[in-house]
Amino acid sequence: MIFGRVKSLDAILATAEKKGLHRSLGAFQLTMLGVGAVIGTGIFVLTSEAAQKAGPGMMISFIIAGFVCAVAALCYSELASMVPVAGSAYTYTYAVMGELLAWMVGWALILEYAVGASAVAVGWSGYFVGFMKNSFGIIIPQALAVGPSQGGIINLPAVVIAGLVTVLLIVGTTESARVNAILVSIKVAALTLFIALTIPVLNTEQFTPFLPNGWGTIGVVGAASSIFFAYVGFDAVSTAAEETKNPQRNVPIGLIGSLAICTIFYLLVSAGAIGTLGAQPVTGAAGEILAPGSPALAARCATIVGSGLTEPLACSHEALAHVLRSIGWEKIGNLMGLAAFIALPSVVLMMMFGQTRVFFVMARDGLLPAALAKVHPTWRTPYVVTAFTGIVVTLAAAFLPVGQLADYSNSGTLFAFAMVAVSVMVLRLTDPGRRRPFRTPFIWVVAPLAIAGCVGLYLFLPFVAQMVLFGWGAVGLLVYFGYSRSRSHVGRGISDLPEADPDVPPLPVPPLPGIPTPGGNQA
User: Fold this and answer.
1) pLDDT tens string 241-277
2) Residue 177: how many other CB atoms lie within 10 Å
3) Whole-prediction pTM value?
4) Residue 464 zone, left/alpha/beta (φ > 0; ψ -120 to 50; rest)
5) Which one, of 335, 367, 62, lies nearest residue 187 by Cα?
6) Is 171 exposed, middle or buried (0-12, 13-18, 19+ CB in 10 A)?
7) Mind listing the pLDDT tens digit for each residue in 432-488?
């Protein structure tokens, strides 16, 4: 039963051709989509999380996380070039491992995108609060700026931005690829400026001790598990495969190119932050290690700042802007905050868009109610599922800290990535003759490394984050056996559907920057 109900690759491709999306994206647009999706809360905010766990050793953490993403990206590239349709890891698993495992992967992708969007919203909130304070002297009370675990009541800015993005997705204001390219350029320019100002003045003494907390869960590998979130988003390139011109060539370029660009930026940015402000973890009064996002850390940070000392990197909610202000670039630091203020909402938009696409494909296969992808008669967007997603994202952003949200999102992402690597190997054995425009090099080394890396990072996540995956998975199994299994199109013997079939949800047309509306012109 576990490996039953496999949907053939031919059926998937035929369905995509009948109900597919307009192919208009090239390699450059895909790379920009990947860079725009990846560069976000991870580097702008989780630098603080990494500093508290690993200190200067977070540079190794970035390398570890980047390596795991690289081998996973190679596996993604082979499958995305073979199966250039929407659905990403869910679709690949359906074609290779069967419906049940595909359902679990799709369910995990929902966890990745929805909780990930919440994490980005919280990250944006930190920069917004700092920007308002330093640029206009407007102080947002702590009770309304952070969640309960950090001494507040509700993260109101995060609630507002999540709500605004939800409304934007529902109303469907069309944005061109040029707008996305501008937003990506703002983020890249901001990071480039940060590197240019910090690298020349870094102090090598700030890198000692390099591994203050060792290699464990509160250490280098634990930091890698958390800042893995900084790389999440490159799989959005494969999600857009159904909208790509010449996907056999352009999808691998977009995946690997965006990942390479982001890795270089991350290493240089982390080196600049460490070498100027320092990145030693904040300890308790007795020298004990304090967990990121904990009330104890929040209290200790308040004590340090209250005594007149410079706020440590591990305490900042706007890490990169804080570094620049601390080394005398006050106005440039404010501009860094402005860049994050402008650009991070596009990442929230992308992640919520990604979830609607996964919902769309799962509903197209009969595993979710078609009503979830119901299109608004005026705005022509899947307003039901978008509104539901928006409510979930808003509630999580209102009360949980960015580090916890990132860890929860990572648990779902790591599971999905591992299943992609398994699918590549299985398909090499079961369908060796199928054309592979992009072949993962050294597949029997690369795919096992991807699986081992995903499992390893998962095991170093906090225990609660690990259990979130099991709890979410248990709910998913109840939904599958209670509803989806009996309504599956494959289970009912329907391998392809006529376009007029009422069970097939209409195509959502959300306003993702970089993804033109079907039939529109690519800017």
Assistant:
1) 656 777 767 877 887 888 888 888 889 999 999 999 8
2) 23
3) 0.81
4) alpha
5) 335
6) middle
7) 888 777 788 899 999 999 999 999 999 999 899 999 999 999 999 999 999 988 888
